[in-house]
Every structure is written in C-alpha cells, then in structure tokens.
Here is the input.
Amino acid sequence: MAKKLYVGNLTYDTTEDNLVELFSEFGEVLSAQIIIDRDTNRSKGFGFVEMADGADEAANALNGRQGPFVEAAPQFGYQGRLPVRDILRVGIKGIDAHCQKQFSGKTFAQLEHADQETLLKAAEAGTLQLENISAKEFFTQLLNETRMGYFCDPRHGGNKNMAAWKMIGYPGMRADYTNWVEVRDQPYPLPPVDLAGKRG
Here is the structure.
C-alpha cells in the first residue's frame, strides 16, 4: 500500500529529483514534491515523498533517530545519530581538547580573541579536525542555535530586553501591525511586545 512521507529540514537547493534519488534506495518512489513559497518562489524547506513500498524503512533510516544512519548528500542536512544538544556538547568538548593540545593546555575560552577567530573560521571551512564530530557540522549547529537564541522570544532565555527585535525593527507579538507590512521607507514606530505582553 502506498504511503506518503513528510520530509523536513531541506536546504533551498534540494530538488525533487534529489528526493527521488535518495528515497529510491529503499523502495519504489511514486512521487516527490517540494513545497514552494508562492511569494518568493523558493522552497519552504520541506516536502513529501510518496512510496509504493519501503516507506517505513526510508523513514527509519533517514529521520536521524533510528539506525541505520546513512551518508546523505549535503542538501539533506545532518543525518547522524546525535541530537542537536549532543552535537553541541561533543563539539565543545572536541574544540577544548584540540585547544589543550595546540595551546599549552588552554581551553577555547582562555585563548586570545585572534586565535579563537582562527579556530572558528577553520571549523566553518571544515579544515579543523576534531575527535568524534565534524567541525563543520558543529560550527553550523552552533551558529544556528546562536541565531535562534538571539532572535527568540525572551521567555526562552535569549534576546534580553528584546534587543535583537529592536535592532531589526521586529514588532514582536503585537496583535495588529498589518498597516505597516508594506511600508519600506520608515522604521516601525512602536516598541516590540513579547509573548508575556511586556513592551520592549
């Protein structure tokens, strides 16, 4: 019996042919669809694959939670066994171990700013070798989590005093700001509001 699978966390350059190629390893693919944003004409980062057979095997193999863990093309994002929390923990431990070997026992936090930047750039480029994890994957996850923390609602522990929202002119959780949506030449005049109703 045919089964349709939701496929998320796709990069913008993932194509429907990419999905067919990946899922065909597990069974017959009947269709693959990437959902496109009608305003930007760009992928929304998710889609659906319909399979005649092998859907359960594909889901188990590719959802990052159950083995077997497969090597997938970069556009499918991280497919390994570690959740984000553990990627960060293992990566931080790996960075510190590398620093202690290269900088006379110092951890990353104890390095000079210039040395820290050099290491982060090497991690971003994938040229830094860490034990137990890809430095590039660690850097990508660290950057993503930092961005989310900085722009999240303050109730989650980041974006103190809504500073990030003020910086970009984001209104926050205001009930109505539709009359400002298409205004491009003026900053939004009111301070942001968080989920708790506090004004920035």
The chain has six helices and three strands. The first strand starts at residue 3 and ends at 7. The chain has a mean pLDDT of 88.
